[in-house]
Write the C-alpha cells for this entry.
Amino acid sequence: MTRDVHRIFLAALSFSTLALSACGGGGSSTVSASPIVPPSVTLVRVSEASPYPSTCGGDLGGSTSYENAEVEPYLAINPANPSNLIGIWQQDRWSDGGSHGLVAGYSLDDGKTWTEKTLLFSRCAGGNSGNGGNYARASDPWVTFSKNGAAYAISISFDGVTLAPGSDGSVLVSRSADGGATWSNPTTLVYSGDTAFNDKESITADPTNSNYVYAVWDQLTASGFGATHFARTTNGTSATPTWETEKIIYDPAFDNQTIGNEVVVEQDGTLLDVFEEVDNTSSSAASGKIRVIRSIDQGATWSTPITVADNFAVGTVDPDTGAHVRTGAGLPQMAAGPGQMLVVVWQDGRFSGGAFDGIATSRSVDGGLHWSAPVKSTATEAWKPSHPAWRCWGTAL
C-alpha cells in the first residue's frame, strides 16, 4: 500500500482566506456577499518515498508497516511570512498504531515547492536517549507557528503495547526558528512508564504573545483514569525555550476520560480547551459530551467544564467485512473568530436518528460560556452565507 500526501490542504486555505477577507477583519457577525465558489487548485506533491528504512524497527509481533504511507497530515502557515508553510505527517503507519516516525515538509513559496525534514521523535529518524527520541514509534503529528515565526512540532512517541509491562512513552516537542529547514532536539514534556499512556496531543502557539505556547493531551492510566494534561512555555522568544512541568487541568474521575484536546486562543488572549469527555468507558453504555474549559491567565488556572452538546456518533464499518472503521469520532475541532466568536464541529449521528454520522456545528458568541444547539453541516450547506455557522469562520468548516 502506498499513499502520497498532496497539496490538498491549499484548497481549504484559499477558502479560509476568502471567508476572512469577506469579513474585512472587523467584528461584524453577518456576511453580505454572493455565494462563494470553491477555488480551483493545482495539486503539488509534498511527500517523497519514505526516508526511513523498512528494517528500522517497531514490529510488536504480527504488525504490518505500510511503507511509503503518509497519514494524518496537518498544516500551519507562518504569520510572520505567509509564504512559509509547514506540513507534518506520520510516515509508514503501523497497522496497530503509530508510525516509523514523523516527517515535516516546508515551503517558502506559497506551497509551490516543498522540502522534507525528518524529526528526531523516533529511532528510525535518528532519535536516541541523548536527544529524547529513543522510541520505536511516533504518532499524532501537530505543528504550530508563533507570531514571531518560530514553529513547534509535537509527537507522542512510544515503545510497546499500550499499558503492557515494559511499555513507555513521552510527549515530545521540537522547535524550528528558520521556517522548518532545521529542527531542535526534542524537549520531553512528560515521560510515562507502563502504567500510563499519553494520547492525542496538540500544540498551539498563542497568536497574541510569542512567549506562550501550549501543549495539551489526555493520559490514560491502567487504573481507569483519563485526565487532561497541559504544559506551556512562557519564554518562547528565547532561542531555547523552557517548558513548565506538566499538570492536570481537568480530571473527569474514575472510568471516564477526555480525548481530542485542542487549545484555541481568542482575540483577548482567553484560552479554551475543547475535548470530548467519554464517561463510563468500561461499560457498553459509555456516553460522550463535547466540552470546553477556559483560562483567562494563559493556562495558569482553568474553569470547570462547560458542555457544548452531547455526542451521538455511531461510527461506521467496512461494508465488505463488517469490521469497525476507525474514524474521527471523538475528535472535535474549534476555531476562534472576531471578538468572542467561536465554532466547534464534530462527528455526530443525531441528524440521521443514529443511522450514520454527519457533521454537527455549534457556535458561541460570548467566549464559550454558552453554546447554540447543534446544526447539521454538509458540503453544500457550508458554502452558503446563510448557513448558521457561517460567521467569518471558514477555517472551521
